[in-house]
Queue: 2 jobs
Job 1
Amino acid sequence: MNEYTYPILFGVVVGTLARFIMLRTDYRQYPTYLHGKVIHLALGFIAAGLGSVAVPAIMDKEFTAVTFLTIAASQFREVRNMERNTLTELDGYELVPRGNSYIEGIAIAFEGRNYLVIFTSLVTTLCYLVWNIGAAAIATVGCYFVIRKFMSGSTMKQIVDIEFKELYFEGAGLYVDNIYIMNIGLPERQKEILKYGMGFILTPKNFDVRSTIANLGQRQAILHDVSVSMGVFRDSGTPALSPLIKRDLDDGRIGVFVLPQDKDVEKAKQVIGAVPVLENAIRMPSESKVSKKEGRNK
Amino acid sequence: MNIEKVVLSIITTNKQKVSGGAPIFICETKEEMDKVAANLEAIIDGISHALSDELYIIVKH
């Protein structure tokens, strides 16, 4: 026992708790099993330990100890690889795959959350050592809000208007509103699609959003989430029954064609609205120098 | 080279209109054509697309 024991202990506990809070199993059902959770809690514990130890090390003028953090960084990059590999492997067995962009987003979140743990432990231990346990407790609350802020990305309902549209066939072509989805030859399949399918039109709220929802990864994420939450009317060997999203080239709207087992329009709208906007799909054409110049000249 | 989309077979009621590399199934009636197309679709995991009322193709996507 020395003067650093309690601060470090405090930092480690808070850091591990932070990882626990950030490890939520929701509709995505990932990580599902206890083993998956144990892996991430254990890694969170390690991250918390590294974050807490860094402060006393600096206070004892052991500056080289900070290089430890670089090991942590490579360790957590490994976490990202691990998640990416697992999810990519499993994606081949999904009826409606997640798609690589969605997987990359999840993997990034796993890596990023470990750094948040290091940050939490570092800050709380520092506060404990510099002031007292009260200050550390306040810092903990502060960190909690920072974590919450980082955890919540934007969702589709913030960037698009969602509207339900009936599907219809023109000859063999399947349409949602005026957007052509695909060609279905067999009358039997056409009947199935009209019976089980639903169509939605997502209208972008501004110009930047157009390219975001045009992103194929973002579209696949929408289809995956709808299929997870509402069920999907398809099986292996029925490629004709695959949910699809196509784009209206004129105005950037997208037509979503899904085959849910639960045909509840309001629920489907909410599910689409709650799909996370993938960070690698976000584009900001309005932030480019050229557009800004135009803005000034107007 | 990885070929992504292939026409796996052609089903028609009008044999004047088709020839070429893919297997061609000639049917007497529209009903027969629908039935053959449905079976082929299930067997080869492709999608039947209608090019006209008398011509279906099965495409692997």
Job 2
Amino acid sequence: MSEITYIRGREPHPRETRRIFRNIDREGYNPSIKCFMEDGGYETLKKAIKMEPADVVNEVKKSGLRGRGGAGFPTGVKWTFIPKGNTKPVYLVCNCDESEPGTFKDRFVVHQDPHQLLEGMIIACYAVQAHFGVIYMREEFPEAAKIMQNAIEEAKKKKFLGKNILKSGFDLEIIVHRGAGAYICGEETGLINSIEGLRPYPRIKPPFFPAAIGLYGCPTIVNNVESLCQVRQVLMRGGEAFAAEGAQRSPGTRIIGVSGDVRRPGYYEIISGSITYGELLYDICGGPKRGRKFKAIIPGGASAKVMRCDEVLKDRNPDGTVREMSVFDIPLDLDSIAKFGSMSGSGGVIVMDDSRSMPKVLNNLNRFFAWESCGQCSPCREGNPWMLKLSTRICEGKGSPEDVDLLKSVADNICGRTVCAFGEACSWPTQAFTTKFREEFLALTKPINALKAHSPETAEARKYLIRED
Amino acid sequence: MSEQPNAIDALTAAKPSPGEKYFPKFEVTKELTEEAAKLVALYPEGKEQSAVLPIIHMIQEKHGYICPEAMPWIAEMCKSTPIHVAGVVTFYPGIHTSCPGKYHFRVCRTIACALSGGEELMAYICGKIGVDPASLTDEHPMAVSPDGLWSIEPVECLANCGFGPNVMINDTLYSQVTPKMIDKLISEYSKKD
């Protein structure tokens, strides 16, 4: 293949392996079908459409590809959940609602390389025999919606979409459906309700997952943008070759978005597990800003639990001995960080240095979750504003030390008591911040302690500020 | 009991905004109906309700916001009920029930942008366009400048976290925005017709 030159100043780091992001920031590349086809585009589709659909599914299963939306569920396995002997139409939905704070990977695919997604999506639709596909585009990407729409028209003209694709007898229509700025639409059942024209309240699952009862009550597969692009990679390179690369349990490349207090924030495509968080932040991102030290990392989008940089973690060696390590020694794959109580999720790494106040960071996250709660389940609808009020009170120096425990207990009571995973997503940050940075929260409650019975008046005031029981 | 209006009254009450002079008033025309029918046709038969959001987007693009008169028409187009449309309209933060200015700022305030100065930028833009930041509340997250040319709304994550602070003006995203850039953008936009 020809040498690729990238726009000056946006070249990939030498430790990156650009596959999905191969054409992102590429010199002279535009979203047209011409550019894509000159780069070998739609060749994989031509290959895949000659295979049996079941073989395509098997290839993806063999590859061990895991979903890139955050949960990391194996894509091929998800596809097989469509009930056997199903007579209803099957739908495939591409989740491009990229709304997890800290995640910014799909944006570049849909803005700069839409045909890559389209090809992956056509292959996936063929594999599950879906004749109607929806790209759920978040509202904040109005330009991407136009680019994608244009890409669909182009693909139709070239017979990659529409009736009788490449004379295989397979029909497929894909439409772009725009959301309207709600975080909950990234949840697959909320997204389905949004497409149905309902308020996007998530549905109860189990027992019925979207693969059995989804859009319009029919089997529906919901895949993330990056997952669908990876499907194309799997078919291009073969399932076994794909599985051989990167971490054993989460093969392939991953796109990591780094934001916050590092010298070179940005997006990096790396082979899963090939580097550690330390290498990512120090070597690739250039380390902390001048005169600063890293303090905390949120490793997988805003809802992942925060990790303290100075915390000593204990891991077991293969021979049974215990070794001490820090968060910087954890390999960057889907599972390694889960052992230490957090998650790698959607690959959005948010970094904070020692100039940051953790209660303030948590307060920002709490505002996000309080704003974005859909309001279907009481614990989440009521609990989130309550957590926001508590963390605001602590940040303003009006909180009592007990508020820190109260804050955590509110989070504990949301977690696991809601219809969708938002309950966990909103309570994990609070649980982790108040546990790992407890001293910072307590320090902010000191102004009230200072009121301690110096004079009869303050003793009087204190009665109302701290509950004594 | 409090004297607060109920949700439906609040939704259908007239909310005059200085931005209205820059957008045509909503009225049902043949072209509009045809355009809506095209959107409905994209979805499988019998699933007309799916077109609620696309039609809402179409009207919002043309008229700036979803006025109370538009809701029964939207309902008619996608074989739904006005109250259902109202439910959808009130759910999403991206759908406006009062008219924004001609140029609408959306300023990200979520963690990554906040770490890189999004909140200060928000205050700066408010000052520049003559809006009181205190008037932006959870109930009314949007404020329009007195001349109707500008409006501002804090939003959650615009998904460009590595390059904060991020600001959208209408459909265009600007990243790594500084106060200086805002000055420049405001003077550029106000020169447009």
